[in-house]
Structures are given as C-alpha cells and as structure tokens.
Amino acid sequence: MSENSMRRLPAEWAPQDAVMLTWPHEATAWAPQLAAVERVYLELAQAISRHEEVLIVCRDAIHRETIDDKLRACGVGNARYVLAPSNDTWARDHGPIGVTDGAQPLLLDFSFNGWGGKHPHALDNAINRHLAEAACFATDVTPIDFILEGGAIDSDGEGGLLTTRHCLLTSTRNAGLDEAEIEARLCAWLGVSRILWLSHGELAGDDTDGHVDTLARFCDAGTIAYASCDDPADEHYAGLTAMAKELRALKQRNGKPYRLLPLPLPRAHFDETGQRLPATYANFLIINGTVLVPTYADPIADAHALSTLAEAFPGREIVGIDCVPLIQQYGSLHCVTMQLPAGTLSAG
Fold first, then answer.
1. Name one GO molecular function term (predicted).
2. Which of 94, 97, 237, 325 has its CA 20 to 30 A from that of 111?
3. pTM (predicted TM-score)
4. Closest residue by Cα to residue 248 from 257, 256, 239
5. Structural domain total, the chain
C-alpha cells in the first residue's frame, strides 16, 4: 500500500464539529457505579456543549429520553442523539477516525475487537455503521478490515504519528503483520509520513496494551506532554523513565528535538481487588478553544497538571473534570470521547 499524498490525519486541536459520547447504561460494566459515572458524563457534556455539539449514542429510545431529561436539567441543549446498542462506552476506541483527503473530510471505520479480545465488542464494533445509517455524517464512512483504536494513535497534524509497539504489534490485534507492514498501512490510510514508536511506559491496570493517549500526547507539532514519574519506589518509575529517554531522542520534522512537558502521576488509586488503576493526566481532550483535563482528587498533582497544560495550550481555557469514577473501569476522559473534525457532521 502506498502513502496517500493528499490524505492527512488532523491534529486534535484542528477545528471540530462535535464530540461523540457513547452513554453508559445498566447493561454495561458501569452498572454498579452508574450514578457516579453519569455525573462525569453530564459534566463532560456541559463543558463540550459550550464550544461544539455533543453527539450522544443511546442504547434505545427510553435511554435517549432519560439522557435528554438529565441534560436539559443541566442546561445542555447543544446535543444530538442517535440510537445504537452498545457493549460499553469507550468512544475513543470504537468511534470513527476523521481524516481529510485534499479538502474533503472523510471518516474511517476501523475494526474494534475489544482490545485484543479481552471484552465483548460486537455491538460497539457496529456503532459507526448505525451512525452512518442514521445520516449523522456529512461525509462517507469507510469500513477498514484492520484493528485500530483511536486511543492507540496521536497526530501532530503534519504527518507525524505517535504510537506504541506494545499495543499495535500485539498478536491479538492484527496477527501476521509485522511493524513494517503495519506502518505502511497506517501511512496509506491516515496519510501520515512518520511513525514515532515508543517501546516503554505501560501503566499498571491498563487493559489496552499501552495506548499512547495514556502516556504521551502532542500539544502542538513541536510539543509533547507525557506521563512522568520521579519516585524510584513507584512501580512506574523504570518504564516511564525509559519512555522519557525515548521521547528525548525523537526528532521533529525539521530535525529539532521536541519540547517535552512532564506531567506528574496522581496519587495511586486502586479497585476493590487491590489492582492499581491507570490514572493519567495525559488523557486530556482538546476541543474548540478549550482543553478538558482529567483530575483525580489529588490537589497537588491536579494543580501541577493543569498548570503544565495551561503552559502547553496558551490561549485555550483549561478545564478540570473529576475522573475518579472513570478509572474504576481502567480508562479516563480522552478514552470516553471521540472528536469529529469540521465538515464531518451532517446538519442537525
């Protein structure tokens, strides 16, 4: 497959039409914590709707009515609903990935297999088809027989793609394809020209095999914010220190090193079995004019992360969202959202 010279994967800070949320319900793993996690979704919808539309995937008509009542009570009117059954709520990984082909925006529907077959996924894998059939989009949605989650990649908007070997090369996703073959396919489908691979840094409790959106993120084409650890007694110290060394060795398109902004780890959170949860500030979401940042009831680390990201995004409002409920199912703010680039959403 040859690279498509007209195709580009926009950076997350490019103009957006909407952010997609797949709303939790009692048939998902959120059932025991549904009230707490819904409060996070309501806060997210409020924050997003101030800047762009919120596209909400509801399991059925009753679910839609319930969500609409709650959003209206919170003053959210800039929402659109579509009905589609769902296994779970991780829109970053089952939602469509937007690219441009020349001036034409397109949506790519990569296959989703529950992070390598770890969890039920058939309903989630069909959500993008339901959205297309419901005429949600103003552009084509192209199905692609290749496993790729949105959380596994991050774009600088200039042909650079940041990702991790641990995730993309795992045999439970695209068995039989080696690094060179996967790289060639990504370059062709996404229009990228440089794959920046990381080999270190997976977080405890992460069940995605090391999604890059938990570890390191572009803030502009020359700046990367990344999860860091300065405590040698922490189980993450060796891996994140090795990742920081990798990041220092990476070069921008112009040959210069990246400006690197370390983000602290929040205090450790654990589930009821004692498993550490993958709390990370790298899981922020960039929307029109604003950056939404997960916080974790850690006043010192939360403030440090918010301040660092304010430095990374001058001119954008920085808004913290309490995501302690979200990490109970091993994801965070970026994981439950998927931005839809400008020109992809149909008129409401």
1. protein-arginine deiminase activity
2. 325
3. 0.97
4. 257
5. 1
